[in-house]
Specification:
Keywords: Signal. The chain is α/β, with parallel strands linked by helices and 394 residues long. Helices cover 31% and strands 16% of the residues. The protein has 13 helices and 13 strands. Helix 7 packs across helix 8 (266-274).
């Protein structure tokens, strides 16, 4: 099934070089994305692989004996897994720069920084048997492909949804205006995602409600457009009770009633409902930002055969089903939908739903070369967004 492409433009080598210098700094090795060589074959495993990933992506049974997809991988490949979780994309980029990790699961607000800094290698997807089965709309995207080179295996994906307490918020919201222009109706009980990338949520709202600003891509903002988004977020700040980066803590706030409205992931709603909270989620009429994670191979890795084996294994139907269901996201491999414990999992997470996917603007790193195709202005890069987010939070 082919899903309509979002209006992203490929990032040029010039943009990548600019990103390396302005958005994230140069890598310790001084390498660039263009200098990396693509692997041509997978040899014998080196016996180990170190993985840097979001919590819940690498489960070995130590957190729950019934949740373990690491052991089968180790048994099949003889590659012993060591795992380091990270809490934010910024933390992930910092850790990956140390050169200590063979594999990373990177969201779109981290992947381009890693590519630009020379921290990850191009990936020869022809060596990955399960790549062919991945949803087409996750392949060859601006956040995982540069100058025609793929940089990893697409993983799970999902939308940043609007969640609300059904017993506290009436009528049910249908627009992001509930957390922006109308946030005062629930002042002190609104929440928002704690990251510079959340600026894109404000830009998406302005794209629909203030078209005179000329925003056509929420990750491609010139200085004036960034200022408008920041001003909207500063106004919202007066009504935000807390910002969240840990979805479990966010759920606790919704369950206690200290938060009644704000952005979330579908897994947050599932946890809240399981705990008895009266919550629902909605994909607002403006659409939403979202994430599509990519498994990438560290350029300094000494265990690249095991790294490739992990990339292929984690996209297999069995492993992808286990991860997607445990973490709470849509799998990248549609064959995984036949193997989830909950037969309605893929329906819940809109796997393969073209009309749903068309409404999501997946996280990607802002760079000076405008992603919307403009050439008459410079757009603001991630370093400018980081500075702006500090101003928003005060």
């Amino acid at each position: 099934m082919e899903i309509k492409k979002r209006p992203y433009w490929a990032i040029s080598a010039v943009a990548v070089a600019a990103l390396a210098l302005t958005a994230c700094g140069t890598s310790g090795s001084g390498s660039t994305a263009a200098a990396a060589e693509t692997k041509t074959e997978i040899g014998a495993g080196e016996g180990k692989v170190s993985i840097l990933a979001w919590p819940g992506y690498v489960e070995d049974g130590s957190n729950d004996p019934n949740v373990d997809w690491v052991a089968p991988f180790e048994e099949q490949t003889k590659c012993e897994v060591s795992f380091k979780p990270f809490g934010t994309s910024d933390e992930a980029v910092t850790l990956m720069r140390t050169g200590q990790y063979d594999v990373i699961s990177a969201s779109g607000d981290a992947s381009l920084r890693l590519i630009a800094g020379g921290e990850v290698d191009p990936v020869n997807t022809a060596l990955l048997e399960n790549y062919a089965d991945v949803y087409p709309f996750l392949k060859d995207k601006a956040w995982n492909t540069v100058e025609g080179k793929n940089y990893g295996m697409p993983h799970g994906w999902g939308a940043n949804l609007l969640m609300y307490r059904t017993d506290k918020v009436d009528p049910a919201p249908t627009s992001w205006d509930a957390v922006f222009d109308d946030a005062g109706k629930h002042t002190g009980k609104v929440t928002a995602y704690d990251s510079p990338i959340y600026i894109a949520d404000a830009a998406l709202y302005l794209m629909k409600h203030q078209p005179e600003l000329g925003i056509t891509n929420p990750y491609s903002l010139d200085a004036d457009q960034l200022t408008a988004a920041v001003n909207l977020l500063k106004a919202q700040r007066e009504h935000v009770g807390e910002y969240w980066s840990d979805v479990v803590k966010e759920v606790q706030s919704f369950s206690s009633g200290s938060t009644v409205l704000g952005t979330t992931w579908q897994v947050g709603a599932n946890i809240a409902k399981a705990e008895g909270a009266s919550v629902e989620t909605v994909l607002p009429e403006e659409g939403a930002t979202g994430w599509s994670d990519t498994w990438m191979v560290g350029s300094k890795s000494k265990n690249k055969n095991c790294a490739y084996m992990w990339l292929d294994y984690i996209a297999s139907p069995e492993a992808n089903a286990a991860v997607a269901e445990h973490f709470g996201e849509s799998p990248a491999n549609p064959k995984a939908c036949q193997l989830t414990t909950d037969p309605k999992h893929c329906e819940t997470y809109h796997s393969g739903d073209a009309s749903y996917a068309e409404q999501i603007w997946y996280w990607t790193t802002p760079v000076e070369k405008c992603l919307d195709g403009r050439t008459d202005v410079k757009c603001t890069d991630y370093s400018a967004w980081t500075k702006a987010w500090t101003e928003v939070k005060g």
